[in-house]
Amino acid sequence: MPKGTKISLRAARTNANMTQEDAANALSKYFGMKISRQRIMDYEKHPATVPLGFGHGFATIYRLPIDAINFSN
After folding, report:
1. What is the mean pLDDT of the chain?
2. Looking at the chain, which terminus has fewer C-beta neighbours within 10 angstroms, N or C?
3. pTM attached to this predicted model
4. Torsion angle, alpha carbons of 22, 52, 62, 3, to 10
């Protein structure tokens, strides 16, 4: 990915070949608590509401640098 390029949270998930359910399961393992598919869907609709910890979690499970994901609306 070219430096400075940002992609949406949904595109990051899609590029990682994950469904929302896959992402929820991966984040559940990452955080050690249940994360719902609904929560993933809400964060994809409203990326500016993603807490920093979740941002790092998304970047980790999608194998992207955190600054490659657009967390603004």
Report:
1. 95
2. C
3. 0.92
4. 160
Place of tokens 């657009």: 70
25 Cβ contact list (under 8 Å, min separation 6)? none
Tokens of 49: 């509401």
**What number of CA atoms fall less than 13 Å from residue 27's CA on the CB side?**
24
Residues in the chain: 73
Bridge partners, 69 (sequence order): 7
**SS in 3 state form for the chain?**
CCCCCCECHHHHHHHCCCCHHHHHHHHHHHHCCCCCHHHHHHHHHCHHHCCHHHHHHHHHHHCCCHHHECCCC
